[in-house]
Request: fold
Amino acid sequence: MTKHEIAGVLEEIALLLELNGENPFKIRAYQTGARTLEAIEEAELARLIREGQLGGIKGFGEALVQKITELHTTGRLEFFEKLKASIEPGLVEMLQIPGLGAKKIRVLHDKLGLTSIAALAAACADNQVAQLEGFGEKSQEKILAGIKHRAAYSKRHLWWEAHGLVAPLLAGLRSLPAVERAEAAGGLRRGMETIGDLDFLVAAADSAPVVAWFTALPGVQEITAQGETKASVRFAGGLQADLRIVPAEQFVFALHHFTGSKDHNVQMRQRALSRGLSLSEWGLVPAEGEGTAKEKAEKRKQVSEIKTEVELFAALGLHFIPPELREGRGEIEAAEQSELPALVELQDLRGAFHNHTTESDGRNTLAEMTAAAEALGWEYLGIADHSKASFQASGLSEERLRRQIAAIRELNESQQFRPHVFAGVECDILADGRLDYDDALLDELDYVVASVHSAMSQDEATMTARLIRAIEHPAVTMLGHLTGRLLLRREGYQVDTGKVIDAALANRVIIELNANPWRLDMDWRHWHRAAERGLLCAINPDAHETDGLRHVAAGVNSARKGWLTRAQVLNTRGLAGVQQWLKERK
Reply:
């Protein structure tokens, strides 16, 4: 096991022990052990275990050393497996409800005997939870709302997770002798932040072997439908995949139809009708009763030559519309006037600014994060660990932040890595809009990401005023995850996005597009108009480990849906360009 995997097991042990009502000191030992482990370089951990020196690390007692060694060498831990088996599965599931931590779940179990979410919902409905000490009416309402959201969320899946399944499935489909063309469609192809299911479209004359291959895929838990030209399967985790097989001559029309949103498809059909044509998933043909027999024959000849989506759009007098823009939000009018933007692409990015290390709640060291940025070919990497108010994330005191700034400057001078490292911070916006550090310390940094991590239940007016006050602080460079949402987990806090955008524009503050697949915040629906007005974006992965840097791909997806171009994203600029912008901003 890697150090990350071992740390994950230690954190889960701490959580299970807390659910079990164990000694707080024992729980804290595992939590501390996990954080300490993350700060050790991978090669160094292997050496310490090999030479029997792990016990020399502060906080690593004999029991912890034994467990880490067992996990590292065998990949399993008997103690962990027995502990998991001893906990009611329903108690662990309750952790998915926002606002319910292990301590509260333990109270619910001990006082009301609750062992499942269904039982918890019934207890809330009977007003039993509100009567418990430490809960009350508001807590009960939040729990019920959380249960309701969880039920709705369970039907959706993150784009990032679904995307990871698509590439091998498409490669498999395309390798089948019977398959002429294969593509993914639906919300996944449009880059929606969450999707209901996967849609695969195949052009094949012989559908039987394709259906047989699809329904026999590894990981399929259930075949929900199977016919001559259609099949649906459900994978572990609940994600459903639908397969449609069409003749090659219909493929492009079906691909367009099953990619576009309902609004986009309605508008495209209306446009076709205005030209005497009928557009559907089966083709583009002369509309009934439109034109003479000769005119219809000419139209049939023209549309019969359509083999690509570029040709399909051209047949309707439009430039090609990228899949991400097919939402019925003005893309057809723009395509008619040749006003579609050249959308930003993943390879345009030269670095990113909002990233964490083991100094706060990250899982990799400064050196490891920088090496990972180098492997991606980036020119720079911004480190923005948490500020002191985020105590739950080991936020940095003033002294620790100054030490980190010095370490970053020293790393740059050493030229050990090609990327330049910017010294930043993710500074908490306190409940009244003040920042978590004084002006003198903030001025020592290259940039400041200001974010909300507490008091998220404030009303819209209060939260909006809070964000605007922070934006107006001269040290703030960019606003982090605007609404604080966690997709499929937690609704964003109430905020007037329009007023926040106005304030950012007035103060030349960037709003980030947080590329963490759980966030994708600011939402793509706001970017088009905001960027047209001059708002600058930074696509930041909010990476807490080296692999998290790759989340910029999800951010680019959302940026494209927001019509963003390369020029509207700060981190498409090279190192010199970013340094110049930061200098001018200060």
Q: What stands out?
A: The chain has four domains: 3-151, 157-246, 251-336, 346-585.
